[in-house]
């Protein structure tokens, strides 16, 4: 039978998934919350209560689907930080770990990089590329081609360049 603090800890742990935070929420001293949280998670009755509470939780929300929607919205509306955060959440929910040794073939890696670059947007990608050791030749070539194309286009279709008429 759990005492009142152990019950509060169990309920808080289900919400926070962090033993230290759950111990603080349950009323344990901040100085000892880390140790108390660890100690409480070693008690079989507490473990059983946490499992029981988790099984009682019901939700009508498909978490993965909602995070995917948030990612798409953020990506489509130029909210880079929100899109990256949504991807981080998706990886956690799906069980991916930053520390795991994931083997990827070249094509999969390239697809993942292109996806990330699309999320970041052209301006940020150019900014990041300028920091690379090999960027000098790439960025100069692209800049020259763009400049030549812009002048040619503006003269052909009569658009205003640098505030003056052609």
Keywords:
166 residues; mainly alpha; 9 helices
Q: Assembly state here?
A: single chain
Q: How confident overall, as mean pLDDT?
A: 77
Structural class: mainly alpha
Counting DSSP E segments of at least 2 residues, the number of strands comes to 0
Uncertain runs = 96-100, 147-166
In DSSP terms, counting alpha (H) and pi (I) runs of 4 or more, how many helices?
9
Shape field: elongated
Computed CA radius of gyration, to the nearest angstrom: 26 Å
How can the largest sheet be summarized? Answer: none
Alpha-carbon distance between the termini? Answer: 86 Å
H/E series, N to C?
HHHHHHHHH
Percentage of β-strand residues: under 5%
The helix fraction, in percent, is over 70%
């Amino acid at each position: 039978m759990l005492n009142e603090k152990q019950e509060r800890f169990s309920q808080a742990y289900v919400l926070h998934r962090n033993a230290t935070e759950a111990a603080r929420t349950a009323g344990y001293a901040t100085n000892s919350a880390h140790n108390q949280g660890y100690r409480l998670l070693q008690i079989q009755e507490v473990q059983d209560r946490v499992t029981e509470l988790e099984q009682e939780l019901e939700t009508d929300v498909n978490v993965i689907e909602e995070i995917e929607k948030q990612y798409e919205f953020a990506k489509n509306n130029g909210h880079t930080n929100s899109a990256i955060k949504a991807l981080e959440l998706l990886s956690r929910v799906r069980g991916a770990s930053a520390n795991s040794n994931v083997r990827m073939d070249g094509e999969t890696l390239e697809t993942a990089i292109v996806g990330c670059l699309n999320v970041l947007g052209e301006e940020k990608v150019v900014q990041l590329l300028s920091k690379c050791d090999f960027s000098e030749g790439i960025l100069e070539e692209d800049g020259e081609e763009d400049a030549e194309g812009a002048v040619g286009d503006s003269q052909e279709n009569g658009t205003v360049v640098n505030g003056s008429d052609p």
